[in-house]
């Protein structure tokens, strides 16, 4: 019976693959990636506002410091909130900050908005919902908890698939943590493992009001089409909103698409106007008086040397921006350029695999060795997932060897005693450069799920600043230092033995993990 339930997701219709339209990179100008602003808003900032973090402990401490310092808003989007002591400490920090806001003179300014996935956040008797209900009860006017439910889990499928397995159909996978005008982008969830010994990536964008506004609006938009957690642990949709699994699926997806695209397009228009205004005021003929006035008031911002592009992927809603940008970056990467790509779950889409194997850049792909895979040692069927990843990795490596691309495309396995690996993203080094000028950081894993099933967001950070490029380079080096190069002998080791049933089942279920 459990095998049948595992295969039940196959009843959902396949999604057609749509590849990115051709788009050539702009070779001149401020930087060669300005074509991205044709799709999403471009936020120009000073590199001094960007800080790359390196450890789970640093990430956790920063979350607590930022929550305590927040005055206007705390917006947190994650897959789930864990139920341990460290997570309770985060909730306590929120309560303390809300209490302070309540006691301040006048009406409280602080608003807290939390977006989680419905299925993952409802797993078990003690779960994300039960952790947050006390905040809803104590501060009903200031706290909002939204639980996204994929429109693809409905009807008979929803009744058949048990807890945990229902998470294979689609999730809210975005990880954004913002506090007033400070934004943390990461692949890490709000759970004790991610605060202690589960390696991920994290970047802090300080004093970036436009970026904070964008992600606040994005989380609000997804929140509006999500179930709202109530004080009695029930959920309900906002008035007039189509239900994600009881209502009409097409109507729901159209509304969700409209809400999210409104956020992207309005921010893009705002940033274009701002860019035009800044450009004209910086021209030789611009008023000297207005410039002097700006200097006097201290409001003149430093010239941006770093650009942030939010990349959104929500295939259930027909939004494929991240996929288009990633495919274009892989397509256009020149000969002798180097791309360092990392994922905790190596299960690339066919399109990404074809581009890596068929283009000219050098690739160094970092993935989890079986013992640092998040599913290592799991009970039941889930315990076989690391073996399935080994099988997928071996197939890809065999293809690399068959095409005689071992020099150009290299696989490396992250291994660290007592740790698991969850880092994802890429660093792009242009030909002849020792430092990266672009990185992608956020929630996508470059796999089928990220492209087709889940809600994802990451940012492309493009920088001309050497100090920030050095920070990104050190981040990449630090991760790759804990790895070994994959060779034919890797798959001959006893711990890489893959059982026949895993080999047979993997092609059927690889689109679900």
UniProtKB/TrEMBL annotation:
Superkingdom, taxonomy of origin: Eukaryota
Reactions that this protein is recorded to catalyse: a CDP-1,2-diacyl-sn-glycerol + sn-glycerol 3-phosphate = a 1,2-diacyl-sn-glycero-3-phospho-(1'-sn-glycero-3'-phosphate) + CMP + H(+)
Predominant location category: mitochondrion
GO cellular component: mitochondrion
Family annotation (SUPFAM superfamilies): Phospholipase D/nuclease
Composition-biased stretches (Low complexity): 281-300
Chain residue ranges for the region called Disordered: 279-301
Annotated metabolic or biological route of this protein: Phospholipid metabolism; phosphatidylglycerol biosynthesis; phosphatidylglycerol from CDP-diacylglycerol: step 1/2
E.C. number: 2.7.8.5
Entry annotated with the keyword Cell inner membrane: no
GO biological process assignments: cardiolipin biosynthetic process
Gene3D superfamilies in alphabetical order: Endonuclease Chain A (3.30.870.10)
Alphabetized UniProt keyword annotations: ATP-binding, Lipid biosynthesis, Lipid metabolism, Mitochondrion, Nucleotide-binding, Phospholipid biosynthesis, Phospholipid metabolism, Repeat, Signal, Transferase
Subcellular location(s) of the protein: Mitochondrion
One example GO MF annotation: ATP binding
Catalytic EC class: transferase
UniProt domain PLD phosphodiesterase: residue ranges: 168-194
Signal peptide bounds: 1-19
General function of this protein: Functions in the biosynthesis of the anionic phospholipids phosphatidylglycerol and cardiolipin.
Family (UniProt): Belongs to the CDP-alcohol phosphatidyltransferase class-II family.
Protein's name according to its UniProt entry: CDP-diacylglycerol--glycerol-3-phosphate 3-phosphatidyltransferase
Species of provenance: Melanocharis versteri
